Amino acid sequence: MNKDPVSRELFDEVMVPNYAPGNIIPVRGEGSRVWDQDGREFVDLQGGIAVTSLGHAHPGLLGALYEQSEKIWHLSNVMTNEPALRLAKTLCDLTFAERVFFANSGAEANEAAFKLARRYAWDNTGAEKNEIISFTNSFHGRTLFTVAVGGQPKYLEGFEPAPGGIHHAEFNNLESVKALISKEKTCAVVVEPIQGEGGVLPADKDFLQGLRELCDEHDALLVFDEVQTGAGRTGHLYAYEMYGVTPDILTSAKGLGGGFPIAAMLTTEKVAASLSVGTHGSTYGGNALACAVAQKVVDTVSQPEVLKGVKAHSDMLRKGMMDIGERYGVFREVRGAGLLLGCVLTEEWKGRAKDFVAAGLDEGVMVLVAGGDVVRLAPSLIIPETDIEEALARFERAVATLTGL
């Protein structure tokens, strides 16, 4: 076994340079605290980008993984397995869904959703009804199809030609959708209830309700990308409940596995029928280990007291960050829902979100960005109040140093 020293410099020697990770290498985590190679401690408000929904080394997740690891790891979809069936049944019981497809990542779940939308229209109307409407500044993954549906051209640069039949309307602007939607050609409208990578920008309730009505009117499917907003992140199991708008297809990943790679596409029996045998698949989708861990996550985050706690912790974190923003003149608002929050920089600090990440690390607190103008927070859904208090104190010191105040 290779026991040579591991350093940040090794990344540049052996990894494809599509990432630019920070200089620290975390080696251990417990709850909402993380320690690096030198033993430095950090309060984690990143949550693995809304992934580690129950924090690090959660005893329940460790137990679920260990118990399943002594039974079955992997079978492929030539066979089904008990954890996958139990998880699918749980998701159907807790949501609008009647059918579930498992994959490994949000991009794969969205790829399945977009393929299903086209296949459903092909089955029920014809090949000409294949167009997808998405939104500017949206993000749906890094496969060629999902990048094309996403509304950020920078992610497509150098990878064209992209799949066609995709149009982009303006988020929170229903009139822009009306100008594009067609009963003859539109098969689906795809939307994030809260644009995550696009700046933690929530949809208006009237906007999502309007999308539902437009889709019904034009025989199009409404697809909610809840990769980032799902699995309890907003204080609801899924954000569609918060809005009172039910989609035809919903995608879930990130926090669903609490750090173990898994994703799900949820839909109705009628729509699911179009993915008949052989039309789509995933080698690892429905993996027994992943499903066993995700079962524990869902069982935990769906509890009313946990969801109530998300809202309480959200209020505490939102107020604390807004107070810091006002004292130092760095944030003009804190938006989002639950424990997916975006601290929007003032004009003076516009474009400098990464500076706040770096300053936070220097003081022992881990935060994220959502574009150049927003500091994003997506911690564990069960982060203790004492850790929130400590994180706010450390972040204030970071801001004080950054601003010189």
Describe the structure.
Its EC number is 2.6.1.11. This protein folds into 2 domains: 8-57 and 304-403, Aspartate Aminotransferase, domain 1 (Alpha-Beta Complex); 71-301, Aspartate Aminotransferase, domain 2. The radius of gyration is 21 Å and the shape is globular. The termini are far apart. It is 39% helix and 18% strand. The chain has helices at residues 8-14, 47-50, 59-69, 82-94, 106-124, 144-149, 174-178, 205-217, 239-243, 269-272, 288-301, 304-328, 353-363, 385-403, and strands spanning 26-30, 33-36, 41-44, 99-103, 131-135, 166-169, 186-191, 194-195, 201-202, 221-225, 249-252, 263-267, 331-337, 340-345, 365-366, 368-369, 374-377. The protein is an alpha/beta fold. It has 14 helices and 17 strands. Strand 16 and strand 17 (374-377) form a beta hairpin.
The biggest sheet, with number of strands, parallel, antiparallel or mixed sense and barrel status, is: 7 strands, mixed
What is the C-level CATH assignment of the largest domain? Alpha Beta
Number of helices: 14
Strand fraction: 15-25%
Strand order of the largest sheet: 4-12-11-10-7-5-6
Structural class label: alpha/beta
CATH-derived topology of the largest domain: Aspartate Aminotransferase, domain 2
Count of β-strands: 17
Counting structural domains, the number is 2
